[in-house]
Design brief:
This protein has about 80 residues and is α+β, with helices and mostly antiparallel strands. The protein has one domain. It is built from three helices and three strands; from the N terminus they run αααβββ. It has a three-stranded antiparallel beta sheet with strand order 1-2-3. Strand 1 and strand 2 form a beta hairpin. Helix 1 runs antiparallel to helix 2. The longest helix has 11 residues. It is globular, with a radius of gyration of 13 Å.
Length: about 80
């Protein structure tokens, strides 16, 4: 839930209207199972989560695709995720 909320806040930061954001809710939802099965990283300081990424394997060769990469709007430009 915390990662989904962060993804939603991060996307909204760029000025999308409420209708667009509502339409994106499903695509911005991070299924908890992803954290157990996908390659992921969470940028945090203590309990505060500043950003995260998730990679999804796209083939049996081990190639991966960046599925999610979001940074908390208050942390954009501070080097989080760099």
């Amino acid at each position: 839930m915390a990662l989904t909320d962060l993804a939603f806040r991060s996307k909204a930061h760029w000025g999308y209207d409420a209708g667009f954001m509502a339409a994106c809710r499903g695509e911005l939802t991070v299924p908890p199972a992803y954290l157990n099965t996908e390659l992921s990283g969470i940028f945090q300081d203590g309990l505060a989560i500043y950003g995260f990424y998730l990679l999804t394997r796209t083939s049996e060769t081990g190639l991966a695709e960046l599925t999610f990469f979001f940074v908390d709007p208050e942390q954009i430009g501070t080097g989080v995720g760099a």
